[in-house]
Write a structure and sequence with these properties.
Rossmann fold, single chain, alpha/beta, 11 strands, 275 residues, three-stranded parallel β-sheet
Amino acid sequence: MVLLDGKKVSNELLINFKEKIDKLNKKIGFAVIWIGNDEASSIYVRNKLKKCEELGVDGHLYHLDENVKEEEVITLIDKLNNDVNINGILLQSPVPNHIDIVKCFNRINPLKDIDGFSNVSVGNLCLGKPFHVSCTPKGIIKLLDYYKIPLEGKNVCLINRSNIVGKPLFHLLISRDATVTMCHSKTRNLKEITKNADIVISAVGKPNFITEDMVKDEVIVIDVGISRIDGHVKGDVDFENVSKKASYITPVPGGVGPMTIAMIFDNLLNTIKED
């Protein structure tokens, strides 16, 4: 069994990114919009800004009150769209219920849409001409590529249909000639599908959702799920038992999560053209 070490791969990528950034004769500006005081978001925002500092990126935090009006958020996005010193814009989710997050995502200039969540970004991906790709799906593909795991002809069971993970990952996988079955909460006989899959990708958010009896020998397992139990982070996969059958498997933490962070800066670098 080979551990798909996202932390190791992410660190290597970030070192490479820093070398590229150091060679640029221009600054990269990255704006993070955070609305409210969600505890998990606080950690994510802090980590992103810390990484900006480490890489030499000009990180700018725009922390808005949870009662901010949607019009004010749109105005801020417009201002950042027109700021030549800002290369990328990220709206941290979740946002308060009175804010239409899809409307806000679509207000971001697609060239600055680092998360790849706008209709234009998603549409380009569906058409096979992506510019910015959603970071978690992109990170999963990068991780598989790093370990030289071919996707062509593989049967993939993808358990997630969200706009952030499942749908963009589906398009990335089929663009690499994988055969993908997208499963979700209404899928019947899930075990029959996972049992026949060469690759199982789970982003459900339920600890130990994927058990040993659900996978075949030599399966490749990508665990995207995150749950917090008694202060510990758990994935969707019963790692201890499933790892005994797997040929490759991601840990939680230290698998997909670090790759997601790395892909934010991969997308950010994508906005820069060297002189």
